[in-house]
């Protein structure tokens, strides 16, 4: 069996590939601008699964906080597999099997924080489903509101970075994102790699880990071929996943880098883009 960490050797399937798994990013993709899932999208997912196609989510969010949010979004019972932390964590929600890997040493994240010391940013690390921030400010409040996540404060993350962690979040104002991206080039990519995941969020984690890795791990966990996955996304942390998927679909609100690698496009997340595409591709009612 091919290792979940190795790209599928056959690459993309030619023609109109048979799809066994549909994997969707959450924020900006499956979720609407109010961070909810529409009834149209929920009914489409249900119809898809009744056709025998598995459905999963692939997010930068952590698996623990997603447990409660799936209930809020009406997704409980509709998601077969969940990829969290941009591919570092994977859970088979049918069996409860969970794989959490690829931790980064504390000193690596501390060095990254030092690189940003003079910029108006905040930092956060997820601990047991709670986003623990370096200080309390409007950036943290915005994350809590838009992401519907629990937050806490550990000044300077001194106590939190007492052991290896999966990911370091850099929060900023949208107008500062260009500076945050440029500053990332000063960090050591052999120790941790960074990617923009939203207009106000940049994330660092284990080198080489991305949603394409999570996609392979999810397919392997379900006993499916990695080359029969359809993936939807909108942000830079979806690029590898859409590029490697048998069918990569960019949302109408997707970033240019995502549109460039996608096979197809669909409507925005405000217009049920995921449901629109699935209904057409699979001929769902």
TrEMBL record:
One Gene Ontology cellular component annotation held by this UniProt entry: cytosol
| Matching PROSITE patterns | COF_2
Database matches in Pfam families: Hydrolase_3
Question: Could you tell me the superkingdom of the organism this chain comes from?
Answer: Bacteria
Q: Which Gene3D superfamilies match?
A: 3.30.1240.10, HAD superfamily/HAD-like
Q: Name one GO molecular function term.
A: phosphatase activity
Which keywords annotate this record?
Hydrolase
PANTHER family from the UniProt entry:
HAD SUPERFAMILY HYDROLASE-LIKE, TYPE 3 (PTHR10000:SF8), PHOSPHOSERINE PHOSPHATASE (PTHR10000)
Give the protein name, as stated in the record: Cof protein:HAD-superfamily hydrolase subfamily IIB
Q: Which organism is it from?
A: Propionibacterium freudenreichii subsp. shermanii (strain ATCC 9614 / DSM 4902 / CIP 103027 / NCIMB 8099 / CIRM-BIA1)
């Amino acid at each position: 069996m091919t290792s979940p960490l190795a790209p599928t050797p056959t690459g993309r399937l030619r023609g109109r590939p048979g799809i066994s798994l549909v994997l969707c990013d959450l924020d900006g993709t499956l979720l609407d601008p109010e961070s909810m899932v529409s009834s149209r999208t929920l009914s489409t997912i249900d119809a898809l699964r009744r056709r025998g196609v598995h459905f999963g989510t692939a997010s930068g969010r952590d698996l623990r906080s997603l447990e409660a949010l799936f209930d809020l979004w009406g997704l409980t019972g509709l998601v077969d597999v969940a990829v969290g932390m941009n591919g570092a964590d994977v859970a088979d929600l049918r069996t409860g099997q969970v794989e959490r890997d690829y931790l980064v040493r504390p000193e690596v994240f501390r060095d990254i924080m030092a690189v940003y010391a003079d910029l108006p940013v905040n930092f956060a690390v997820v601990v047991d489903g709670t986003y623990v921030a370096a200080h309390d400010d409007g950036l943290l409040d915005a994350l809590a509101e838009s992401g519907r996540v629990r937050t806490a404060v550990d000044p300077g993350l001194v106590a939190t970075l007492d052991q290896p962690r999966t990911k370091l979040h850099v929060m900023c104002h949208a107008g500062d994102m260009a500076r945050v991206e440029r500053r990332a080039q000063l960090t050591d990519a052999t120790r941790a790699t960074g990617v923009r995941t939203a207009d106000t969020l940049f994330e660092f984690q284990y080198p080489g880990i991305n949603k394409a890795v999570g996609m392979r791990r999810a397919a392997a966990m379900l006993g499916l071929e990695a080359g029969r996955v359809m993936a939807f996304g909108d942000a830079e942390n979806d690029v590898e996943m859409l590029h490697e998927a048998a069918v990569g679909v960019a949302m109408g609100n997707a970033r240019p880098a995502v549109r460039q690698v996608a096979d197809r496009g669909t409507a925005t997340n405000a217009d049920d883009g995921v449901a629109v595409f699935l209904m057409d591709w699979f001929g769902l009612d």
